[in-house]
Design a protein that fits this description.
alpha/beta, about 350 residues, 14 helices, five-stranded mixed sheet
Length: about 350
């Protein structure tokens, strides 16, 4: 019997499927495994290359298999799909994973430690609470508009509406049941605001204590939240050979539709880590807004871009530029140095 060199593992909640291949790529076994028997099965296998899709639970199983002496590679699911021959089942998926990992040009996802995943949960939790707050604010505005009470956009204006609930003018115009439910929503909104404030303090503390985060905060447009998000969610900086690769990993590089030597670029790909990408675009928008109000440095790249491009496009382009600068700052272990303005 041929020796197993590569195993493609299709993971799930309770039922897993392993596809083993020899050094020539031929199938050695294709086996269904339960969750309870998975580690026992791999304990009996010689040290080999194990490939999985980078999905929920993949990092946990990768760490478990690495402790057994196996080499583990995580592949983005989008890169596995072209190797699925036909139909869709666990055995076919495991075979496709096994075949994909053998390609010399395949790209992989770095296996995260438990500490890295825990640090990333801070931002996931904050994003979840911010989304819940936004839903609550929209609900509060919508219900009050049904009774003729509206307010301009902004958190401060919502707080004004909440304060008016205790005023006689608004209270007398609302049914008793509506007032009770609106107070429930305003209390929930205040609680969410407190939780977001606590998480912001925790993120600021992490940014002060981390040397790389402090360097990243020297870049205009990158604050404590964006800096610590890059440190926690981005793979090791050595993974990227240049800043362009890091920006492309974040989905900030334009999509290409080029053929026949004719280059055609479209919108940004949005293919990578969306949390960092969103924070960089927000930071870029803040810098662009300040430059619009107070003016950009004479002869700077930003001044030239604002003179000929829409503000939103400039914000995204600046986010791409910030990503490249962040890569350089992390690679060289230096603070950001602003470039000299070009004379007109």
């Amino acid at each position: 019997m041929s020796q197993v060199i590569t195993i493609g593992l299709d993971i799930a909640k309770t039922v897993f499927h392993a596809h083993g291949a020899d050094e020539r790529g031929g199938m050695v076994f294709s086996r269904k495994l339960s969750r309870a028997k998975l580690l026992d099965f791999f304990a009996e296998q010689p040290g080999c290359l194990v490939a999985m899709e980078a999905c929920s639970g993949a990092h946990h199983w990768a760490r478990e298999l690495q402790t057994m002496g196996h080499e583990v590679r995580l592949i983005p699911p989008a890169y596995v799909k072209p190797f699925v021959k036909r139909h869709k089942n666990d055995a076919v998926d495991a075979e496709a994973i096994c075949e994909a990992v053998q390609r010399p040009g395949m790209r992989f996802v770095a296996v995260k430690s438990e500490d890295q995943q825990a640090a990333g949960m801070v931002f996931r939790t904050r994003d979840l609470i911010v989304r819940q707050r936004t839903q609550l604010i929209n609900a509060l505005r919508g219900h009050l508009a049904e009774f003729g009470w509206v307010a301009p956009r902004g958190l401060a204006q919502v707080a004004m509406l909440a304060d008016l609930l205790d005023e006689e003018e608004m209270a007398s115009s609302l049914p008793k049941a509506a007032r009770a439910m609106l107070r429930v929503m305003t209390e929930m909104l205040a609680e969410l605001d407190d939780r977001i404030a606590d998480l912001d303090k925790e993120i600021a503390r992490r940014a002060r204590e981390d040397e790389v985060a402090r360097r990243l905060m020297t870049i205009p447009g990158i604050g404590p939240i964006a800096a610590t998000a890059i440190v926690a969610l981005a793979p090791p900086v050595e993974t990227f050979t240049k800043g362009r690769d890091f920006a492309a990993w974040l989905g900030l590089a334009p999509l290409q539709h080029s053929t026949g030597g004719r280059q055609k670029l479209g919108r940004i790909s949005k293919m990578g880590e969306r949390t960092i990408r969103r924070l960089l675009i927000i930071g870029g928008s803040s810098v662009v807004r300040q430059a619009t109000v107070h003016g950009a440095a004479a002869g700077s790249w930003l001044e030239r871009m604002l003179a000929r491009k829409p503000r939103m496009l400039v914000s995204v382009a600046l986010a791409n530029k910030m990503a490249r600068i962040a890569w350089a700052v992390m690679t060289k272990n230096e603070d950001y140095r602003a470039p000299a303005a070009v004379a007109a």
